[in-house]
Task: structure prediction
Amino acid sequence: MILTITLNPLLERRLHFKQITHGASNRAFKEFFTAGGKGINVSRQLNCLGIKNNALTFVGGAGGKMFRSLLAAENIDSVFVSSKSDTREASITFDESTGKLTTYFGLNAPITAEEASDFKSRLDKAIQNCSIVILSGSSPCAETDGIFPYAISLANEHDKISILDTYGSHLNACIEQG
Result:
């Protein structure tokens, strides 16, 4: 089994327009929500390939409830660490007339030190029960910057393969663990 880890999940609201006119009111003709974040997207693709996986991520608030239900509807096996902050959101617009997709990201969800510690606690058991760990995406705040390096250390300790796709201030600490 493969474990995917997403520290900064995303509830995406997708709006489709026949044509967008900037500076004017525009009405969508289609709207839907999807669960996103780099690690979640990896889990989605692994499901398409028929590869057993489990997604570990933070969720919180009303957006987190919707996020959970969207993952369940896609049959993405998940373990959630609850946060007091609402799950991060984005609005994505698609203009059919130009074929342009534009993304508007909301604020990163602040994670408390206690929530980050809870996430690390769940990592130990999860990493022992998988063969590969995939760590994808950004870290939303300083409190979560230590999670990816910790996960890489655990993967090394338990002789598991770890794959990293990240950027930001915690990247050097991740590389040092490799």
Observations:
- Residues 43 and 53 are 6 Å apart (CA to CA).
- The longest strand covers residues 10-17.
- The chain has a mean pLDDT of 96.
- The helical segments are 38-48, 61-73, 113-128, 147-157, 171-177.
